[in-house]
């Protein structure tokens, strides 16, 4: 196809590059096409290519491949798909993931999530029957926090930024998290689901806590008192629930996001679907774990 298009190339294509660079660019384009890409490329092709490269190659190699594809589009007068905002975001996340590499936290795989939440539910119901009021608030909070955290791929920052005013629950149907107050545009729609339904858990937590404004998941003292001025320690709470379930893995809130991405991947979700649900970092990280 390159030969067919060469007669409409723009003057910029004539700017000289070394023979070695031209050879490297040609090899990069061939690699792109061997991975299912076409020239001229679409943004979607570039995004999938970045995802594939980030599982195996260094970020310098990824950058070189992008430069090669950019040069071809620029030279032939096509719009450059490597310069879109979504591709820049993907490259930024790919660079971060390549940098942290093996130091990333492990994903919270679904079977471990299920065990953690099922164990927690059993302990919670025992506390209800024994009327352990000082423990119940924290238990209901953690149930809501981690069911929402897993199914929406939320990290600690996402969970701690939520305000009660942003949440609208329709029992047995779903929950909407608004971008600002409830009169503004919806940010996330979360349906009722099984197992470990985040809608049911959130409804229980807000009912038991009596919260009507402020931080959704505030800190709770050891005496069971809510402190509306402080956010909860998400990672510490997750470690306690993990230990309670007798799982010897050091999960963090990032494990929730990558764990959901892994579950979605195993359920047949495409890379772009995962990306749209939880963001670039866990989607790319999921592919690294899969390889």
Automatic annotation (TrEMBL):
The answer to keyword Transferase applying to this record is no
GO MF annotations, alphabetized: DNA binding
Q: Give every Tyr recombinase domain span.
A: 123-291
Q: Name any Gene Ontology BP term.
A: DNA integration
Q: Where is the Core-binding (CB) domain?
A: 1-77
Keywords attached to this Swiss-Prot or TrEMBL record, sorted alphabetically, are: DNA integration, DNA recombination, DNA-binding
Q: Which Pfam families match?
A: Phage_integrase (PF00589)
Sorted alphabetically, which InterPro entries does this protein's record hold?
CB, DNA_brk_join_enz, Integrase-like_cat_sf, Integrase_catalytic, Integrase_recombinase_N, Phage_Integrase-like_Recomb
Would the keyword Ribosomal protein turn up in this protein's UniProt record? no
Q: Which domain of life is it from?
A: Bacteria
SUPFAM superfamilies noted in UniProt: DNA breaking-rejoining enzymes, lambda integrase-like, N-terminal domain
Protein name stated in the entry: Cre-like recombinase
């Amino acid at each position: 196809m390159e030969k067919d298009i060469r007669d409409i190339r723009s003057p910029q294509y004539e700017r000289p590059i070394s023979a070695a660079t031209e050879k490297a660019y040609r090899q990069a384009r061939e690699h792109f096409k061997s991975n299912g890409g076409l020239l001229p490329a679409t943004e979607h092709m570039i995004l999938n290519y970045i995802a594939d490269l980030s599982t195996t190659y260094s970020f310098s190699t990824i950058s070189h491949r992008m430069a090669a594809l950019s040069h071809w589009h620029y030279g032939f007068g096509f719009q450059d798909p490597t310069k879109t905002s979504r591709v820049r975001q993907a490259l930024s996340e790919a660079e971060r993931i390549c940098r942290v590499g093996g130091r990333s936290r492990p994903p919270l795989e679904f079977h471990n999530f299920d065990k953690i939440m099922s164990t927690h539910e059993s302990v919670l119901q025992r506390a209800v029957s024994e009327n352990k009021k000082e423990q119940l608030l924290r238990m209901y909070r953690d149930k809501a926090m981690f069911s929402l955290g897993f199914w929406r791929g939320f990290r600690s920052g996402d969970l701690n930024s939520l305000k009660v005013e942003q949440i609208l629950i329709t029992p047995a149907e779903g929950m909407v998290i608004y971008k600002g107050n409830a009169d503004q545009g919806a940010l996330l729609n979360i349906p009722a689901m099984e197992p470990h339904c985040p809608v049911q858990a959130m409804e229980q937590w807000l009912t038991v806590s009596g919260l009507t404004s402020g931080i959704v998941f505030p800190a709770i003292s050891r005496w069971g008192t809510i402190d509306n001025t402080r956010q909860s320690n998400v990672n510490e709470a997750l470690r306690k629930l993990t230990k309670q379930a007798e799982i010897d893995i050091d999960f963090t809130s990032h494990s929730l996001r990558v764990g959901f991405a892994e579950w979605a991947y195993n359920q047949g979700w495409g890379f772009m679907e995962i990306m749209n649900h939880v963001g670039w970092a866990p989607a790319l990280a999921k592919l690294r774990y899969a390889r």
